[in-house]
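Exam prep: given the inputs below (a chain plus S-adenosylmethionine), describe the expected output before reading on.
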Amino acid sequence: MKNFQSEIIWSYKRWSNSKKGLLNSHQNIYFYSKSKNFKFNQYYTNYAATTNIDQILQDRKKTANGKSIYKTDENGNIVLGKEKKGVPLSDTWEIPYLNPKAKERVGYPTQKPVLLLKEIIKIVTDKGDLVVDPFCGSGTTCVAAKSMDRNFIGIDASKDAVELANRRLEEMIITDSALLNKGYNSYLEKSEYEMAILKSIDALPVQRNSGIDGFLRKHFNEKPVPVKIQGKKETLNDAIEKLEKSCQGKEFDLKIVIQTRRESRGNRLFELESDIEIIQSQEMIIEELKEKSTVPNNV
Ligand SMILES: C[S@@+](CC[C@H](N)C(=O)[O-])C[C@H]1O[C@@H](n2cnc3c(N)ncnc32)[C@H](O)[C@@H]1O
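Solution:
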């Protein structure tokens, strides 16, 4: 196709069991230009964690049989390359799908996230440029363009869509994405220690929930089983209380707290009334075994 530039894959995480086969979790965006001479703002992203940046910063050359080797100077020292900007923005974009409860949602069935349109606008326009969306629907492109100080024109065959787009342009609600701002790793807050405990009981970790650390992979009485690990600064009562709070309004048949430290009776002046089962972490069981052991050290 003439002046075809790229096929952009917009990918996102979603959960559904409704279909046999692979879960659909991307859409395709076709990028064309009017002519060969088009504006393109190059953006760079960070190197992957698997990239050895030290190697990238060394110049290379091709040998006679096409193999890439490091360039060396007359003294055999490696020639260091020019400053690198990172990895050019790729044609695969991970941008969250609009959450059903997002404030940005206006109820338009095919509404796209503003963040997706912002990404498109930033690579091909600058401030003051004109952005045109001839099928603007709820006006997402116009909202994105306005928020980036671009001029814009939105067109739609539906009068309702145009009215909705105008209303949105007055309110300008854009849902920020913590995922894009902080990255995936910011969601992974479980320590190695907690992950090891959850793995040992075949539980899936729950992130960003102070009362539930995981759920057993296998249900009990066809209901999920929440698990809370007693935190380093938590008493057993604290842990029980937090799990109870997170379970309020949900009828689980089994709830588990993993006790990680021994507590003197004095520490638990009163025991909370709760149907939570308490089991000891393996580490704690071993510690207790060691204490109980009567075998002399020097046998
Ligand atoms: C996929 S929706 C756009 C959704 C939009 N990106 C958003 O985020 O809300 C496509 C829109 O094209 C409009 N449309 C369809 N045929 C049209 C036509 N011939 N001229 C103008 N608009 C048209 C529809 O009314 C619909 O709102």
